[in-house]
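A favour, since you know our structure tokens better than I do. Would you make up a two-line entry for one protein for me to read? Write everything out right here, beneath this request.
=====
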Amino acid sequence: MKLSDDVEKTLQVCRTGFETHSRFRKHLPRVVNDIVTSCHDEECFEHIDAELIPSRESVIEIVARLREILFPGYFNKEKLDRTNLGCQIGRSVDVVFETLSKQVAHSLRHECLRYDQPCIECVKMGHEEALGFMESIPKMRKVLATDVRAAYAGDPAAKSYDEIVFSYPGIFAITVYRIAHQLFEQRIPLIPRIMSECAHSITGIDIHPGARIGESFFIDHGTGVVIGETTVIGKNVRIYQGVTLGALSLPRDAGERLRGKRRHPTIEDEAIIYAGATILGEKAVIGARSVIGGNVWITESVPPDTKVILEAPRLIYK
């Protein structure tokens, strides 16, 4: 049966498309070979023949489960009451312990093998460190309660504690920080930073897990806040969006020369730092009860009970 001209043209287009597709695919083995060759280039980065690093998805699941434990009833999928409280908490604790043990063991084994460190019995250590973390949760809950109350006391727009726990990005970021900081203090590699960067990507608030932050800490609005690794913050401190507690300009070899050394500010008890303020360097100690106005730039110490503000700008209307 003779095909119509229209059908013949359609088939010709299909054949041409298939041949073109195949012609381009023939180049893929060469591309693969080039990529594999580049994996032997010492200037490039690869993670081949190394232990698995902790799973980001598992770490995020740990944070989600820990929120259920730290704030019971707020983030649980099932209704929580006094009758099933022990059962539900027990289930979450079991999941967190098992998952965290495994991920801690991964992170420890990764460091041992990749950097030729002495064996520390990673699986056993994973269980020990996970248990130590779980034992810190009651204390962590009490500190987070002070953070929630500080948010309510410092924000007239807050209608309830529930609203703060459910929805405030500052409280989410602080919660993840307190989790990550505990693991950081236990010297667990990789996992604390994965947690803090997860919170950073969600809230725009970047708190290094190594920072030391006292109770009753409140971040209002929060977007653009940066708190560096060696920052020390006292009790009842309040900061606003766009605040940077960072390091001074660093030389090219700063990574090796300054790693592990103090290079960030100290904020003493009951200080308030308004939006856009930048406070840099270890010499910058903001004294207790001081108020730092918006958009100021500080690299030296400020005495206690001091207010630092910019002169009012001269506006030009045309």
Observations:
- The chain has ten helices and 14 strands.
- The radius of gyration is 26 Å.
